[in-house]
């Protein structure tokens, strides 16, 4: 039986979400002039709140505004590395580190499944010692540059489960032959919670806490 421990990242492993901090970190490091575009970013967030655009399109717009429409991968790797170092210093929950170490010691394959962009989440996962990463991917052009466009699906909600299942198929992992633990803070991950063998609500939102109480899922607090 293959043992998998699948972790969400934002507010599960980290204290706060990483997407906006990564964009601002990139702006400060690479192009401070892009800060003048922040009001446009706020307008895009308002459009999302009004349901005029979906979460994936919001990411693409903000990527274009604050990272640029196309970037050399080596440039993004540098800023992703410095952001991962900052995240490890200031934004990792101690309880998450303990649980990751426990799962590793138990021989479980560590998988990060996050809606965040792979271009920086993968670097954070590497720092944490994860074996695999499932994340939102970016389109690479024929010139090798990273475009401000999502490749495939935004790894959020039901799409996250589809991407986990696609990853398992690519890795030739048969669901019936796997024992799967899943940790997340948010009710949007309910499809994965219902699908896994051991759902754990980590630092849960109010909605997830209520869901966990109703379904009898364990609740943990990794903030201490």
Descriptive keywords:
8 strands, 21% strand, Rossmann fold, globular, alpha/beta, eight-stranded mixed sheet
Structure described in brief:
By secondary structure, the protein is of the alpha/beta class.
The main sheet comes to:
8 strands, mixed
Secondary structure tally, helices: 9
How are the strands ordered across the major sheet?
Answer: 2-5-4-3-1-6-7-8
* CATH T-level topology: Rossmann fold
Q: Identify the CATH homologous superfamily.
A: HAD superfamily/HAD-like
Topology:
Blueprint: E1 2-7, H1 19-30, H2 38-49, H3 55-66, E2 70-71, H4 73-90, H5 94-105, E3 109-117, H6 118-128, E4 132-140, E5 146-151, H7 158-170, E6 178-184, H8 190-195, E7 198-202, H9 206-215, E8 219-220
Parallel strand pairs: 1-3, 1-6, 3-4, 6-7, 7-8
Antiparallel strand pairs: 2-5, 4-5
Tell me what the structure shows.
With 224 residues, the chain is α/β, with parallel strands linked by helices. It has one domain: 3-Layer(aba) Sandwich (Rossmann fold). Helices cover 47% and strands 21% of the residues. The chain has an eight-stranded mixed sheet. The model has no long low-confidence stretch (mean pLDDT 94).
